Description:
The structure holds 2 protein chains of 2 kinds. By secondary structure, chain A is of the alpha+beta class. Chain A has 2 domains: 2-33 and 170-358, Four Helix Bundle (Hemerythrin (Met), subunit A) (Up-down Bundle), CATH 1.20.120; 37-144, Immunoglobulin-like (Sandwich). Chain A is built from 8 helices and 9 strands. Chain A has helices at 2-5, 7-10, 13-31, 180-204, 207-238, 247-268, 272-300, 321-358; strands at residues 37-42, 46-47, 52-60, 71-77, 80-83, 86-91, 94-100, 111-119, 123-133. The two termini of chain A are 24 Å apart. Chain B has one domain (19-235). Chain B has 10 helices and no strands. The longest helix of chain B has 30 residues, at 105-134. The radius of gyration of chain B is 19 Å and the shape is globular. Classes of the chains: A alpha+beta, B mainly alpha.
Amino acid sequence: MELSKDKWMHLWYWKIAGAVLMVYVLIGGMVTPLKPGIESLDGPLSAKPGDYVELKIKGYNAHYVTGKNVKAWLKLDDNHIIPAVNLRYVAEDRLIAMFILPPSGRKEETVPLTLVLYNTMDGPSILPDAISILPMTDDIDPNQMIKWHTSYEQLLPTPPGIKFPYRNILHETIRNTFFHVALWLSMVIILLAGFYHAIFYLRTKNTRHDKLSASYNSVAILYGLLGLATGSIWARFTWGTWWTTDIKLNMAAIAMLIYAAYFILRSSITDFDKRARFSAVYSIFAFVALIPLIFVIPRLYDSLHPGNGGNPALGGEDLDNTLRLFFYPSIIGMVLLGVWMATLSYRYTKTEEKIMTQF
Amino acid sequence: MIVISIIEIVYSHPQSDQMYLARIAELVRKDFLVEIRNAQTISAIVLFTLTVVFIVYKSFNALAPLQWNVMLWIVVLISSLNALVKSFSADAAKTSLFYYTLYHPTEVIVAKIVYNFMLTLVIFLIAYVAFGFFMVNPVKDFGLFIQGACLGLFGICTIFSFVSAIISSQESGVVLLMSVLALPLTIPCMLLLIKISSVSMRLMVDSSVGNDLLILAGIDILLVGLVVLLFGELWKS
């Protein structure tokens, strides 16, 4: 009975699949280059209508010299676009674009413009809020000034090839999506498996479920710790510190504390039956108590995490198809590897118990 | 499917007599009498609370409203942890067996939660009055403060009652194990509690405080439901 139920643990193909997926994600996720982007801009923050401005652009992965047909625009919206009057190439990734600003048409507000660059090698790259046009004053006659163009001169085709999107602040750390975010998602999935087995232990009183529940929970803790570690390293490079007061970060740490307490409870009870029952009860309680911790509380507070407070995140245009190409395989691969680890731990405890009961 | 299995856990219990509020009240009364007759426990808890309040007061001398708020809740949390840690192991093993034959586990745990909630409220009132006495009371919206306090403390005492039931079979290291198991679980309640009482002290402006109260009530209902479902499993030992 027991053997037939555990037969899938001895099969090899899903383990190979997990390992292959992870190798694919590791290599593909690390090697695939980022799309060209605008790293920084040196120029005035705002200018009056009719002013001549020079924007010194520093590109990332860009080819302003070798790329053909280099163009630059400032864009108010899709129908208000102004091309650069002149471009000067300083280096492969440096460009000076000169613009004469048209009137914004608004009397009171300062209007931010988006910088759009294009060349045949890189395709389009965009920097929002590049410069703002100050409000109109009465001495400006709109008719005597440069006019907006109503559309781009031509469509901007993206050159073929798989490249990850370029996002300011995130830069190369966008690859952490495949590791940090995927680790948390697979942790929740593996915790669900542990929760499921805890319930089934209480229903059937079969110690198989108890051992499996403990194994899944231990793998989930490992994933949680790795998630904290990858997040911490990521935070060092984007936020500047290893640890912040960010609510998601601290709730995750507390979740780890709760599950660490689960193992302390397990180790403190010597009676097998009692240990199985009490730890099953505690893990069900802990899992449900985790729901407000992970899914409710973080939504009540501001977070520095991408996706909160105007930061870029998953969903919408931020998780684009090239990221999905590695993100979903990463989750599947991590869950498979986690289940593999859990079954190893399960088989170890089962064998240990078998040997112990022989004497 | 999970829900069905949880329901089955409850109803598979050997005793599924009807519950009566009167029987629960009876158990609460019993707990109350045990506490009164053995007055050293309750007086020790009161003394503990007052001592900690005094330590806080003399360490800070003058507390800003934010610190007042946070320290009050930490003192209440620690004191009620100490008060509730023995809530199940106070009954001897034979007495437990006696209750097991007489009462449904749901009655036992509901009575325990009700009694523990009253005890926690007493501790809270003592700490609150002492904090107000030694240091200036910054609470502006008392109604909101009390609502938040009741909901938050109810959640906390549910968690404490449940964990003290889990560790009741332990011989040693009970307090340590209780802190390790229960304190991380109380964090959602504590955070919401501190947020709501901050609003009631006008430390922060939050128009959605009614939402926070609802979420706290939701967490309470979730916890009580879970404890009632799972307690039958613990009670068999």
